[in-house]
Amino acid sequence: MRFIDIEDYNPQAMQLAMPVYDRMRRILLAAGRTIHPNYLERIKEIGVTTLVVEDAESYGITLDEMLDMPTWMDIIAVVQEAFEDVKKGKRLNVVAIQKAAMTLIQEVNALKTIILIPTTSISEGLEKYAHSVNVALLCLQISKQMSYSPVQLRDLAIGALLHDIGKAVTDQEAEHPAKGFEVIKESREISLLSAHVAFQHHELLNGKGYPRGLKDKEVLEFPQICGIANLYDRMLSNQKLPPHEALELIMTKSDDEYSHKVVQAFVNSVPSYLPGTKVELYTGEQAIVIGIKNHLQRPVIRFLESGKELNLAENPSVLISKVIN
């Protein structure tokens, strides 16, 4: 099982490993089948650019660290409902949002790390809601390094799920954090800290963020975590950066845009190379990542030519040179 760009799909060698959903959250194509060229074009038309497939090279590889698709879609539906309620001038369904947050907390606690389902793997109509769910998942994964209480985890998860809710009432990028803050604080059952996640997630320690240009300790820790999670998911889904490059870029922002503490927690929380990623070693040998065991940045690989498996965490002299398509 592995992620591929839809343009790299080969019907003779690949079959879907996860279903494709349309904008109404209905299964358009089920897992375990090949895609007819006509259906492939239809999938492209609805904005899907990433597929999860199984082929000979990725046989036996699982993505156990990924949230299961039905749960992901259910929480996307909660976020979508929140956006639609705000657009209609209705109050947020706080009970549904709290339940979604608790579900994510339980799911993340059960996993060693988190592998995000790309927002580009579903219809464009659902992408912004899927992004919010992914950001919440990342925030909770990062928070494992922070020793937060259950109440803090809940407040962080709710804030992350609603971090872009201001976009339901404005199309202006610079305005949506403040608008989101106003929306969330109307619900007294939601902590003001959650509202500040929406308000400050684009603020930076160096004062170059928005909407208020806050600096240093004026930027709270929760919004910093959300800001990094937001940036990372955008890098992976929108910019199509491989995880190790996104990780390296975020590391350069330590003590400038985000605190060293939060950046280090992020680095210690996410893997550099996802299972199913094909890589080339400095020896010129090619391999595929088959799992993550005892080191997030040093995965287990399988050589493409020999089929031999090697745990890089136990072989420090074996280094990955680059990711290959």
The CATH topology label of the largest domain is: Hypothetical protein af1432
The Rg value, from CA coordinates, equals 20 Å
CATH architecture of the largest domain: Orthogonal Bundle
* Global morphology: globular
For the biggest sheet, the summary is: 5 strands, antiparallel
Mean pLDDT: 95
- What is the CATH superfamily classification of the largest domain? Hypothetical protein af1432
Low-confidence stretches: none
Which CATH class of the largest domain?
Mainly Alpha
Helix/strand class:
alpha+beta
The topology string of helices and strands comes to EEEEHEHHHHHHHHHEEEEE
Distance between the termini: 15 Å
Report the portion of residues in β strands.
5-15%
- Strand ordering within the main sheet: 9-8-7-6-10
Given the structure, what is the number of helices? 10
How many discrete domains? 3
The proportion of residues forming helix, as a percent range, comes to 25-40%
The strand count comes to: 10
What is this structure, in a nutshell?
Helix content is 40%, strand content 11%. With 325 residues, the protein is an alpha+beta fold. The longest helix has 20 residues.
How would you describe what is shown here?
By secondary structure, the protein is α+β, with helices and mostly antiparallel strands. It has 3 domains: 2-54, Alpha-Beta Complex (Molybdopterin biosynthesis moea protein, domain 2); 69-267, Hypothetical protein af1432, CATH 1.10.3210; 278-323. Helix content is 40%, strand content 11%. It is built from 10 helices and 10 strands. Strand 7 (286-291) and strand 8 (300-303) form a beta hairpin. Helix 6 runs antiparallel to helix 7 (192-200). 43% of the residues are buried.
